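Budget justification, computational time. The allocation requested in the original proposal was used primarily to generate structure tokens for proteins on the priority list. As evidence of use, we reproduce two of the resulting records. The first is shown immediately below.
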Amino acid sequence: MLFALSFEERPAYEEHQYGHTRAESIAASIVALIVILSAAAVGWEALERMFTVNNVPPAWTLWIAAANVVIKEGLYRYKTIVGRRTRSAAIVANAWDHRSDALCSLAVLVGLAIVRWGGSAWSWADEAAALVVVGAIVWSGIKLFQQSASELMDPQADAELVAHIRSAAESVPGVCAIEKLFVRKTGLEYLADIHIEVDGQLTVEQGHRIGHAVKDHLINQFPPLRDVLVHLEPFPHKHDPPD
């Protein structure tokens, strides 16, 4: 994840004119897959040990499991806040890696407590708790993978952000209407394609000046916007009839 976040900051060059921002989504997908595979491995081990009779664990193992639950859950909550603030799918995916550790530790805590108070005959409870947690982790990992993979296919940004960008563009002097607006997420940033309608009697230079004003205004107003491609249409715009 750290490698991906540093790699996406590399400047664009001839073979990658749009930069390397997709590295963040690729890393998030890989982390999600690791979480799923790790959970599957824990589940397989739990099934193999389901009916194995184990010794009653000492009391200090409960304290270690409880401490790990608190630490890992705290890391999960902190990284989730950072990931949402920066809109980083990779950091959110890594946060869920901590959540999976916390849930596993919780399963260990519950299972060990049952075994300790119920005796070795209840040793299967530890593995049963692990299987419940495995199911929750796999479900979360699948949702994370779907989200990060979706970012690789240029989805439209959330409706609230698109509405704010549209409103900001309409406020620029000379803009009569917005015909089309596409905003796609790429890594930690966004790319916008906007078709603005201007007075058809303006000169090319005047229309060009309005287009640049729209681009500059949007980039200044919305820091996550990496670039804005502006296309001009005459107002009122007459759509071509269907073939």
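The second record produced under the same allocation is shown here.
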Amino acid sequence: MDRQVWSGAMNRGTVNLAEMLAYVQPLTWIVGREKERVKAGGGRRALRVHVVTDSQYCATQGEVADGLMEANAGLWAAVAALRREGVVITWHHIKREDAALNSFCDKLSKVARELIESYNWPEGAGGAGKTHYDHNPDD
């Protein structure tokens, strides 16, 4: 029974993409940790994970058969690969306002969005023909 806060940032993409990334990263970590445990002599076991989300999209699509999603297909393929590794995922939708932990996560995401905005450069900044993608803070 682990509860951990995962953080990261993304400043381009859809809300659904951001929701999916929030689950793929820790699920991948869980599989890696389990592989290390098995390698150290522990027996293989099914990993049962309950994902509690305020995203109706994730909860609904997570319960659909693998390979049927077109939107965010790459991330759903990663979820399917995790299932093949033995992860049994049960998706639960809870409205944001009905769970204190969802409200906490929503506040964390707002802080992350505000922080990443400070790193966005306007197009053309840094010289003629350059964009914020050409910027290297170590230069």
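A brief technical remark on that second record: The helical segments are 15-39, 56-62, 73-84, 100-117.
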